[in-house]
Amino acid sequence: MNMTERPSGVFPAVCPLDCPDACGLLLHKENGKIVKVTGNPAHPETKGAICNKVRNMAERVHHPQRLLYPMRRSGPKGSGEFVRISWPEAISEIADRFQALSAEHGPQSILPYSFYGNMGVLNAEGMDRRFFGRLGASKLEYTICNSAGNAGWRYTMGFGGGSSPQDTLNAKLFIVWGGNIVSTSMHQAVLMEQARKNGATVVVIDVHKNLTGRRADWFVPLHPGTDTALALGLMHVLFERGLTDVDFLREHTVGHAELREHVRAYTPERVSRITGVPAEDIVRLALMYGETSPSHIHIGNGLQHHDNGGMAVRTVSCLPALTGQWSRGGGAFKSNGAYASLNDDALQRPDLRPDPGVRKINMNALADALLTLEPKVRGLFVFGSNPAVVAPESGRVREGLRREDLFTVVHELFLTDTAKYADIVLPATSSFENTDLYTSYWHHYVQLQQPVIEPAGESKSNFDTFKLLAEAMGFEEEAFRESEEAVIAAALDNPDNPYLNGVTLERLEQERFVELDMAPKADYLKRLTTPSGKIELYSRQLQDLGLPALPTYLPLEEGFDGENRPERQGRYPLMFISPPNHNFLNSTFANVGKHQAMEKEPLLQIHPVDAERRGIEDGEVVEAYNDRGVYRLKAVVTDLMLPGTVVSQGLWWAGPDSPGAAGHSKRLANALTSSRIADMGGGATFFSTTVEIRRAEAAADSTSPTGATKEG
Ligand SMILES: Nc1nc2c(c(=O)[nH]1)N[C@H]1C(S)=C(S)[C@@H](COP(=O)(O)OP(=O)(O)OC[C@H]3O[C@@H](n4cnc5c(=O)[nH]c(N)nc54)[C@H](O)[C@@H]3O)O[C@H]1N2
Ligand SMILES: Nc1nc2c(c(=O)[nH]1)N[C@H]1C(S)=C(S)[C@@H](COP(=O)(O)OP(=O)(O)OC[C@H]3O[C@@H](n4cnc5c(=O)[nH]c(N)nc54)[C@H](O)[C@@H]3O)O[C@H]1N2
Ligand code: SF4
Ligand SMILES: [Mo]
């Protein structure tokens, strides 16, 4: 008897959320419903501990507002007015519209837009890729999360994997750089605490003292977007004081002589002016790094959501090489995704695509893709993502979604802000209703999810939905008839990835958590895939792209540093940082009562100096604004960051649209952010955003539609 048929019991599951930890879960089921979610103590890395978000997951899965049947729009776009239709009606309408668009405008007029609302590979990057590939739709570039930083890491290190979780336990110096692991990767935070018990010093480098910074032995605040300068300042001191590992540099790197010359210009005094970190602290941190072994740097996502984010991660990832950490049991982590890389050709079947040269659309540029791109995007299929909330420039994204000549389908569990703009809404199963395969971009265990509960209402998985659509479109390939198990087996069979040796569907069915074969990691340094096969302190690849070959600090396009501040200040003199909060997962859970109650409301952390200058008091309602939009929230006056930076954590839904007022729903952090593309990997630049803040009272008598103050 499979798990769905047993009304009660405790069943294994995998956390599907876009979180590095990929926890093993236990679902406690009574009368067909999940009543409790706990951690699975048998999981070798997550060991039964899970976060508060997912402990309250049952409320989300059985939420009264789950979408239960397909719907067609009956009111204006964005109004949320829909009528119920059947699946056959929905599927044939979508197929008809897609066929008509393909015939009239070519299939590239259709754009799939998705991300990792569910990390299961079949549902997030399996049958959808096959379907839209076979259709010949425009290709989406999946750049919203970590692509600048991952590219930066790869230019330096080649291979997209770093230190293993258990290695970090041995660190005597543990640096969290631009990450908030207490909220975003709790098991790494547990290992950090264990390392501290074993004698490690914990240093957190961030633009605000987040929950992780509050646990640090030493918190180092800096101006946003200046991490490259800080890392170069550390290198300056390391070379000058003879703290580099010369043998390691000779054997395993290229460009160390050039780098040594290059960093002479980054004196502690100059770097201090740029970053806001006192010169003596730069020296102290460099000495600590140069004299402590093993050391570990956890590179978060924060420093790379910037115009210069690729370079920032590239530069920080050079540091372990300077002190030879990779051969001393230390190192760094950006993402460990590559250890578990699957056979993407078998999973996604790019061979089905009629025109491999079809245009690519960077998902960060969704606003432009919908408003200005030619030839036009006329069909949009959104799933596993909530772009009306999470994508930059949400005012313009919404304007695009309101286009009458855009046919939009949204496949979702809830009537999200994005789904409200759909012409057709399709109900999605939760991951606990599906079969899927899960890897982790942090630990080394692969997991299998099998259905534990029946699909809610008429909901269907992405996998099944794209099969139905393929059938309706007349796609006859076997690829659209394969079972979940067949696709999983094919994806796991990746001869190019030795770490995946011995990981099979059969073992997953029996063992649940199957560890990657980590034996090849013993000669990690021989497996680097840079052009030289070495750690590239000097990168010809970057030079060919027109970027500096050596790590080089370039100021933000939108923003300022301590050195360039005065002339760049302009009308918007504050940097606005909007990282994740503790109780939501991106915009997931922002509609669930328990999670909302824990976060209360959107808050803006503002420094006392900046608050006083504007006459703002703690607890009062303020507006953050720039030319893109307005965000209304409550001020918290605090010195958790340097003056000049304001911080608002969490992505809230705006709720009902107010037609005609693009970006003025006033509850969206991304109403303020830019869709400029980062220096590497096509990455997002969420945190390279400048704003001004005013009291909401002052806003009420302001006349400017862009929200500028009367005098501004
Ligand atoms: N609770 C929770 N967990 C999550 C998520 C969530 O929404 N909520 N999201 C998940 C996802 S998709 C991701 S990508 C990860 C992200 O998780 P992390 O890797 O931890 O990254 P962020 O939380 O985006 O940003 C971390 C920090 O970067 C800081 N920061 C911003 N700009 C700069 C800068 O220029 N320099 C430095 N040094 N720091 C800067 C921010 O202040 C923030 O404290 O978390 C995952 N886990
Ligand atoms: N200002 C600002 N913006 C940011 C960030 C930031 O730090 N600051 N972080 C960025 C980052 S790192 C990321 S990764 C993105 C994340 O952005 P998104 O990937 O859009 O993440 P979520 O907001 O969690 O939305 C995921 C949606 O997928 C739906 N979903 C879940 N499972 C399934 C399924 O099986 N099928 C279907 N069809 N739907 C499903 C959920 O209900 C949810 O609405 O946001 C980015 N946006
Ligand atoms: S969100 Fe992260 S920490 Fe929480 S249960 Fe899921 S994988 Fe674990
Ligand atoms: Mo992300």
TrEMBL record:
It comes from Saccharibacillus brassicae. Pfam families: Molybdop_Fe4S4, Molybdopterin, Molydop_binding. The lineage of its organism: Bacteria, Bacillati, Bacillota, Bacilli, Bacillales. PANTHER family: OXIDOREDUCTASE YYAE-RELATED, TRIMETHYLAMINE-N-OXIDE REDUCTASE. InterPro entries: Asp_de-COase-like_dom_sf, MoPterin_dinucl-bd_dom, Mopterin_OxRdtase, Mopterin_OxRdtase_4Fe-4S_dom, Mopterin_OxRdtase_prok_CS, Prok_Mopterin_Oxidored, YoaE_C. This is Molybdopterin oxidoreductase family protein. Keywords: Iron, Iron-sulfur, Metal-binding, Molybdenum, Oxidoreductase. SUPFAM superfamilies: ADC-like, Formate dehydrogenase/DMSO reductase, domains 1-3. Residues 8-65 form the 4Fe-4S Mo/W bis-MGD-type domain. Its cofactor is Mo-bis(molybdopterin guanine dinucleotide). Belongs to the prokaryotic molybdopterin-containing oxidoreductase family. One of its GO terms (molecular function) is oxidoreductase activity.
